[in-house]
């Protein structure tokens, strides 16, 4: 997207981008596999591998070539520049059962008979990471993942800063680029446009790419 399309690269930095949100969530719990999951938790199971891979692809500099070694080297540079996390940067949790659900949906994590009693292993995690380099200084990369959520979703949301010099009385919403990985790959950009008609009303529209 970025390296093959000139229109995106000039805005791919802290001057234009306010935040990057990387999400992975599943609509089901451990489904009787809690004993296995409890050894690792959601951070080791999803965040430290899958989500950090996505973060490094979004944030890396242009590699010398498209060869795996060159791409890996740029990704490693990003990971080395991530600042150490503080406790205030992290939110952890466990899913509870849905009394109106069916089957395993009624069971919370601690109600899974394979999960050790009193386990504090997180099934949900959110972490706000900062990349200490010139391109991304001050831009939070928010990683969140969890089980037992409302739906299945894996996506990246790149949110841009507000438009400077607003002349629309605060009506414009921030532009967003959304890269959906699951379910069904998609790429679209949220932007403000004038509504059809003679009045000067604005509305948020999506440019489906």
Automatic annotation (TrEMBL):
Domain of life, per lineage: Eukaryota
- Gene Ontology molecular-function annotations: glucose-6-phosphate dehydrogenase activity; NADP binding
User: Gene3D superfamilies this protein is in?
Assistant: Dihydrodipicolinate Reductase, domain 2
Q: Which residues form a coiled coil?
A: none
Residues forming the Glucose-6-phosphate dehydrogenase C-terminal domain are: 1-209
Q: Keyword set for this entry? A: Carbohydrate metabolism, NADP, Oxidoreductase
Which biological processes are named by the entry's GO terms? glucose metabolic process; pentose-phosphate shunt, oxidative branch
What catalytic activity does the UniProt entry give for this protein? D-glucose 6-phosphate + NADP(+) = 6-phospho-D-glucono-1,5-lactone + NADPH + H(+)
Q: Where is the signal peptide?
A: none
Q: What is its EC number?
A: 1.1.1.49
One GO CC term of this entry? cytosol
What pathway or pathways are given for this protein in its record? Carbohydrate degradation; pentose phosphate pathway
| PANTHER family noted in UniProt | GLUCOSE-6-PHOSPHATE 1-DEHYDROGENASE (PTHR23429:SF0), GLUCOSE-6-PHOSPHATE 1-DEHYDROGENASE G6PD (PTHR23429)
What this protein is called in its record is: glucose-6-phosphate dehydrogenase (NADP(+))
